[in-house]
Design a protein that fits this description.
The structure holds three protein chains of three kinds.
Chain A (H helix, E strand, L loop, with lengths): L2 H5 L2 H6 L20 H31 L22 H9 L2 H31 L6 H10 L5 H15 L5 H5 L6 H12 L3 H9 L4 H12 L1 H16 L3 H6 L3 H4 L2 H6 L2 E2 L2 E2 L1 H27 L11
Antiparallel strand pairs in A: 1-2
Helix pairs in contact in A: 4-16, 5-9, 5-12, 9-12, 10-11, 12-16
Chain B lengths: L11 H35 L2 E2 L7 E2 L3 H8 L1 H31 L7 H13 L2 H12 L4 H10 L10 H29 L3 H9 L4 H12 L1 H16 L3 H6 L11 H11 L3 H29 L5
Antiparallel strand pairs in B: 1-2
Chain C lengths: L1 H21 L12 E7 L3 H17 L4 E7 L1 H13 L6 E5 L3 H4 L8 H7 L15 E2 L2 E2 L1 E3 L3 E8 H6 L11 H11 L5 E4 L4 H12 L15 H15 L15 H7 L3 E7 L3 H5 L7 E4 L10 E4 L1 E5 L6 H11 L2 H9 L11 H7 L2 H16 L1 E3 L6 H16 L5 H12 L2
Parallel strand pairs in C: 1-2, 1-3, 8-9, 11-13
Antiparallel strand pairs in C: 3-12, 4-5, 6-12, 7-9, 7-10, 7-11
Helix pairs in contact in C: 2-12, 2-13, 5-12, 8-9, 13-14, 16-17
The chains are: A mainly alpha, B mainly alpha, C alpha/beta.
Chain lengths: 310, 302, 418
């Protein structure tokens, strides 16, 4: 692939950030439309967006109420929203069924550390691929990107073999590291970094700052929203990862993660649907919290003084 | 196009930059070498062997690949994956773009709305699938409502060869919308005010504003999202596996599920690896075509 | 500079991968060389505790051996097993289920009479017919710890409400159809068809007296008797409408779910679920009966789970001793009296019935005795799991009336038969 094809997406990255915009305040006051027609359109837009949100939520509301049903009523016909009794105890029973606090703890540990690793690796590599110039850069990047295109299901067994050589089977390192070097994060950060105007770095370079200082003091602070997006996506991917933890962990009781915990509800003698739903709801809480916290960051902008035009 | 000025700094400065680049890239490259290259190479090697899970491994050249092309089920799985991708990617991109556009600055509570749209992404697939099954099955909500309100019997969606794939796509779209919506929202949030103002002064309003100004300006991020969505949708597995089990028959069985079955159910790791590399080739080609086509519709500022 | 670096790395990686490919198998079996690892499926904390208890018995009987345990959730036990096999990591004593054995025979050591002796067991310890469970084409690969067969479960409340008769020991297929029809009323169905191999094939096998494979491992899906019985079974949904069509090919537990959700009055499932159904969450009164009797008797498959020795096991004798302990009287008594499984050891079997609630005890004993009277080991082909994987999703179309059972069976026969 020619260099040209890759350098073309500069602006993608620029558009993934809010910080490099021209000096305008993000929080422009939402001016009310002057005309009645405009006001009506605005109301309609509100209605549509909220209705859409409700449609999105319907299956989840259903899931929540299903978690409160007794096991036998999960598939009763005609389908009911609320079962014959409201069993809040299902949520507590989840923790009695198996070592769920351990599962949650492990998932948190793996996801948090894994996300940190990915952030560090992706920002540094994204800087190397996106801002620094060196021979063979784009070719190496294409090869790197190509690794995204191999389905994980087929890499799992060879990867397990590698873990055996390192003697990392059934360890935390094995849960965190092998898939923490994927190309997605680097791709995202590279795209993003390419959009930051060079004038910013140039000014610092002229002052004698090397790439390291440039990276730490100029590029990174400008990249908060891209980093936030990457953090959310990466955390999510670790949190919901199932096949790899299943394979590389031997002692599920001590090292198991939440998705494995969810699988334990199905056995030879049937499935505890009620507890599985309750556990699924519980497992959504940390990720939802993360999104709520970072959401503001994802789209907030900071006025950058002195940057007229793009 | 880079923003670095035209003067090429050859010599010691460039070499220094090269070394620093190596430093910056080293965590990623070391990780790549340790954790990605070896399994990848190992799996390529496996695809040229008769590699049962347990027992003798014998080199068999391209025999695995030949078997793939003779295998009708492989071809069908490939077709299913393509159908899924062709249906899923445009719908997902368009809808998430519409959602992001809809959540303009004047909508109150857009932060909360964004979180709500994102929640299906965050929900474990097991829960999503269970709920959708309860909606779609003949004894489920949709059919129940259809019969009581309209007196019609809806088809058995997940058991019908025509409808099953459509439902897999629908559920996947619902589940994945928040993801791309977030990317587009970020892009929209930081469109330069100056251009919008200029367009407004020139008389652009509403739909015309959106279509001729806003969308082209965020086309690079649409491109990025399209590439990533296409790569992941060509590798779809969990949604059909849980929702329809690949059925009815093999009507919704995607390629990765076929690969998984060969490896984990039928103990034929060599064949599975070969299938995966065919998929890889397909993804590279599709991505390459997209990169080539971007000149036609992606607008860059420089 | 960058290029050569990366190039060198790739070359090294490729080289080592090739070297590895040249070697067969992999590292030695897991654990220290003197520890015997037991690998079994377990879901809840209760399951794990029960396994631990059996392990403790084994430890007590073999104080000089170090014994470890590892577990996986049932649904993924075989995914894990595949990985372990591929990387030479299989546990010395590994659990196996009769339905899955045919795909994994390569990984287990065939067991001889001498092996049983080393384990401290003899063939007479096992109830008649149970040793067939984990044999494949006549070779014994694992020893069973529990034994089960297929029976019919029914919902007493639903049948009474519909004014239908109740299945009894010795009932016929005519009785079955009649009861199913009577119970199909008010939006509920009299019967629920199965999607799992054992569940859906049970009635056709009983009706025709034939299995879809021969004893020497040849596929015979299109055997006229079996095909006719299978078609009759599918028509319960499409023509007689006494059972609901299945919603999705991923509903592998369809019949059982319909039954426990009280959408259907009867379903076929294994005896391993007897206690579960009798003490069900929904609170309905349940009952069980053997499979209906037809012109060819009421043959039912004898199934179960057990433990085998991995081919890659380094200390076979120690493993055999552990195996023997896991199947010893103490261990079998334990699982019987806790009501967890109906043991394979003949002398422990009565304890199972003692553990059942008094109000069901007689019924369960009578039904078990009747059901186990006419059993056959399952005959499978070498690629049995491929056959099952092919047929199962097609069943959805058959039940939905969009494909015919004869078509599906003949296509499968064509593809997998010789």
């Amino acid at each position: 692939m020619s260099t040209e094809l890759l350098t073309a997406e500069t602006s993608t990255s620029a558009l993934l950030t809010s910080e490099t915009a021209s000096g305008r305040s993000r929080r422009r006051p939402a001016g009310k439309p002057e005309t009645t027609g405009g006001r009506v359109r605005l109301v309609i837009r509100h209605v549509v967006m909220y209705a859409a949100a409700l449609v999105f939520m319907v299956p989840l509301i259903y899931a929540f109420f299903s978690a409160l049903k007794p096991n036998g009523e999960m598939f009763s016909m005609p389908p009911t929203l609320i079962g014959s009794e409201i069993k809040w105890s299902n949520f507590a029973e989840v923790f009695e069924y198996g070592p769920f606090w351990t599962y949650i703890g492990n998932s948190l540990l793996v996801a948090v550390v894994g996300t940190l690793v990915v952030l560090i690796v992706s920002t540094t590599a994204g800087y190397a691929f996106g801002r620094l110039r060196w021979k063979g850069r784009d070719l190496v990047f294409v090869a790197f990107l190509a690794t995204l295109m191999v389905p994980a299901e087929v890499l799992v067994i060879p990867m397990f073999q590698v873990m055996q050589w390192f003697q990392w089977v059934n360890t935390y390192q094995a849960l965190i590291l092998p898939f923490a070097f994927g190309a997605f994060g680097t791709f995202l950060m590279r795209q993003f970094f390419r959009g930051i105007p060079f004038e910013l770095e140039e000014a610092a370079r002229v002052d004698g700052a090397g790439p390291v200082r440039s990276f730490l003091q100029i590029i990174l602070p400008l990249s908060k929203s891209a980093v936030a997006v990457l953090a959310v996506f990466t955390f999510l991917s670790f949190w919901n990862s199932y096949l790899w933890p299943l394979i590389v962990t031997v002692d599920y009781d001590t090292l198991g993660t939440l998705p494995i915990g969810l699988a334990t509800f199905s056995g030879l003698t049937g499935t505890r649907w009620d507890l599985q739903m309750a556990a699924a709801i519980i497992s959504m809480i940390p990720t939802t919290l993360l999104v709520i916290i970072l959401q503001k960051h994802l789209v907030k902008g900071i006025a950058m003084a002195g940057l007229g035009g793009r | 196009m880079t923003a670095i000025p035209a003067t090429r700094k050859r010599g010691s400065l460039a070499r220094a930059e090269g070394r620093q680049a190596l430093g910056f890239a080293s965590p990623a490259l070391v990780g790549l070498a340790l954790f990605t290259i070896v399994p990848v190479v190992l799996s390529i090697v496996m695809s040229f062997f008769d590699w049962p899970t347990f027992g003798e491994r014998t080199f068999n050249g391209g025999a695995n690949y030949a078997r793939l092309f003779a295998n009708g089920e492989f071809a069908e799985a490939l077709r299913n994956t393509l159908v899924f991708t062709i249906l899923y990617v445009p719908v997902s991109i368009v809808l998430s773009l519409l959602l992001a556009l809809g959540l303009g600055p004047r909508i109150r509570g857009r932060g909360a709305l964004r979180v709500l749209y994102f929640i299906p992404v965050v929900t474990p697939m097991v829960a999503n699938v269970l709920v959708w099954k309860m909606l779609l099955q003949p004894q489920g909500l949709f059919n129940g409502l259809a019969q009581t309100w309209f007196g019609i019997q809806l088809p058995n969606f997940l058991a019908d060869p025509a409808w099953a794939m459509i439902m897999v796509v629908v559920m996947s779209v619902w589940q994945g919308l928040g993801y791309n919506m977030l990317i587009f929202s970020a892009a929209l949030e930081q469109l330069p005010e100056s251009v919008i103002e200029a367009a407004r002064i020139d008389g652009a309003r509403g739909l015309r504003m959106t279509w001729s100004i806003v969308v082209p300006m965020i086309s690079p991020s649409i491109f990025f999202a399209t590439i990533m969505t296409m790569i992941t949708s060509l590798q779809v597995f969990v949604q059909p596996q849980l929702l329809t089990g690949g059925g009815p028959g093999t009507a919704t069985q995607p390629l990765v599920m076929w690969i998984y079955n060969q490896g984990f159910k039928f103990q034929d790791l060599g064949l599975a690896a070969a299938g995966a590399w065919i998929l890889f080739a397909l993804i590279i080609i599709v991505t390459g075509v997209q990169f080539a086509a971007q000149k036609k519709w992606v607008h860059y500022e420089h | 500079m960058k290029k050569t670096r990366v190039g060198a790395l790739v070359a090294i990686a490729a080289g080592s991968a090739l070297v590895l490919a040249g070697c067969s198998g992999g590292s030695s079996a897991s654990g220290g060389d003197d520890a015997v690892t037991v690998d079994m499926w377990a879901g809840s904390a209760d399951d794990t505790a029960a396994l631990k208890a059996q392990l403790d018995i084994a430890k007590k009987q073999n104080p000089d051996l170090k014994i470890d345990m590892r577990t996986s959730p049932w649904n993924d036990f075989f995914t894990k097993l595949t990985t372990n096999m591929a990387s030479g990591n299989m546990a010395c004593v590994t659990g196996m289920n009769s339905g899955m054995l045919s795909s994994y025979t390569a990984a287990f050591q065939p067991l001889t009479a001498d092996d049983l002796a080393t384990a401290g067991l003899s063939e007479d310890d096992f109830a008649p017919g149970t040793l067939e469970i984990l044999k494949n084409k006549g070779t014994l690969y694992a020893l069973p710890f529990d034994v089960s067969t297929m029976v019919t479960y029914y919902n007493v409340d639903m049948l009474k409400a519909a004014g239908a008769d109740t299945p009894k020991v010795g009932w016929t297929f005519d009785d079955f159809e009649r009861i199913a029809k009577q119970a199909t009323t008010g939006g509920k169905y009299g019967f629920a068809v199965g999607m799992g191999d054992f569940q859906w094939q049970a009635l056709p096998i009983a009706k025709s007296g034939t299995q879809p494979a021969t004893q020497d491992g040849k596929l015979q899906l299109t055997d006229p008797d079996f095909e006719q019985a299978a078609t009759w079974y599918a028509q319960l949904v499409t023509d007689k409408k006494v059972a609901a069509p299945v919603a999705s090919a991923s509903d592998t537990g369809w019949g059982e779910n319909q039954y426990t959700s009280e959408n259907a009055a009867m379903a076929v499932d294994g005896t391993w679920n007897a206690v579960g159904y009798l003490t069900n969450d929904a609170g309905f009164t349940a009952g069980l009966a053997p499979l209906p009797t037809g012109a060819n008797g009421n043959t039912s498959l004898i199934l179960g789970s057990g433990f085998g020795i991995a081919k890659s096991c380094k200390n076979k004798d120690a493993a055999l001793k552990v195996l023997g302990s896991l199947l010893s009287k103490d261990s079998q008594d334990y699982i019987a009296s806790s009501g967890r499984s109906y043991p394979a050891r003949a002398e422990s079997q009565p304890l199972y019935f003692d553990s059942i609630d008094a109000k069901y005890r007689d019924q369960v004993k009578k039904v078990f005795d009747a059901a186990f009277e006419d059993t056959q080991g399952q005959y499978v082909t070498d690629d049995w799991s491929k056959v099952g994987t092919y047929i199962q999703p097609q069943l959805v179309s058959v039940y939905n009336g969009q494909a015919s059972m004869t078509d599906v069976l003949s296509k499968a026969q064509q593809q997998f038969g010789e």
